[in-house]
Design goal:
Radius of gyration: 18 Å
Distance between the termini: 27 Å
Helix content: 40-55%
Order of helices and strands: HHHHHEHEHHEHEEH
Number of strands: 5
Number of helices: 10
Strand content: 5-15%
Length: 222
C-alpha cells in the first residue's frame, strides 16, 4: 500500500502550491500583505490539519476565496515522481505484488496527479480518503477499506511519509510500516536515526525489506 504525495510523488509540488502560490494569490485577492496572508492561512491549516477538510480543494476554495484546484492545474507541470518511483513499481509488478494506492488527496487532486504521472497501470486498487469519509489518520478509514477490499493487515506493507497516518494504520493492525526520508526535494532529507519508523530515500530501497519479510515467512513455514 502506497501513499501518493510525498511517497510516490515529490511533495515539492504541494509545498509550492500551499506554501508559496496560494499565499501569493490570497494576498492579491484580498489586498493584504504576503505576511498577513501567510499568517491567516497558517491559522487555517493548523485548525484543520489531518481532517478531510484539510485535503479538500473545494473546502479551501470556499474558505480562502481562491480557486485552489485551478491553481494546481496552473502549475501542474511541476508534478513529478519521486526518485525510484517507476523503477520500484516496475519491479513489484514483475514480481507479482498486489499494489494499492491510498491517498488523502481529494478525488479532483488525485485525477490531476494521475493525468500528469500515470501510476494507474501499477495499481489494482486506488482510493481517495474523500470516497471513504475518513482520512488515513483514522482507524475508521482502514476498517472501511478492509470491508470494501478484504486484506490481511499483518501481511500488508504501508509506505507513507506522514507519521499520524502510520500510527493510524498501526492502531488498525498493519505491522509493516515504512516512511520516507525526503518527501519534498525542496527540503533536506531527514535523519533516519531520528525517525519513528524504518525510512527509505530512493523508493527502490523498499525491495530489501520485502525480501527479508519473504525470507522470514519461508522460514516459518519450512
Amino acid at each position: 500500500m502506497f501513499d501518493m504525495d510525498g511517497t510516490l510523488l515529490d511533495l515539492a509540488f504541494d509545498d509550492l502550491i500551499w506554501n508559496q502560490k496560494l499565499p501569493e494569490r490570497h494576498a492579491t485577492t484580498h489586498q493584504c500583505s504576503l505576511e498577513q496572508s501567510h499568517a491567516i492561512l497558517h491559522a487555517f491549516y493548523q485548525e484543520h490539519k489531518h481532517t478531510l477538510s484539510w485535503y479538500s480543494s473545494d473546502y479551501w476554495t470556499s474558505k480562502v476565496g481562491v480557486n485552489v484546484l485551478a491553481l494546481q492545474y496552473e502549475f501542474q507541470d511541476r508534478i513529478q515522481p519521486r526518485q525510484g518511483c517507476f523503477e520500484l513499481l516496475e519491479q513489484l509488478k514483475a514480481q507479482g505484488y498486489k499494489c494499492w494506492l491510498m491517498t488523502n488527496a481529494d478525488c479532483a487532486s488525485l485525477k490531476l496527479k494521475l493525468e500528469n504521472v500515470d501510476l494507474r497501470p501499477y495499481f489494482e486498487v486506488i482510493i481517495s480518503s474523500e470516497e471513504i469519509g475518513y482520512s488515513k489518520e483514522f482507524v475508521e478509514f482502514w476498517q472501511i477499506v478492509q470491508q470494501q477490499h478484504p486484506f490481511e493487515p499483518r501481511q500488508a506493507f504501508l509506505i507513507d511519509d506522514t507519521v499520524p497516518v502510520l500510527k493510524g494504520a498501526a492502531n488498525f493492525g498493519i505491522e509493516n510500516l515504512i516512511t520516507i526520508l525526503q518527501p519534498s526535494t525542496l527540503k533536506a532529507a531527514k535523519n533516519a536515526l531520528e525517525m519513528e519508523y524504518p525510512a527509505i530515500l530512493n523508493l527502490t530501497e523498499l525491495l530489501p525489506y520485502l525480501d527479508q519479510y519473504q525470507k522470514e515467512l519461508d522460514a516459518k513455514t519450512a
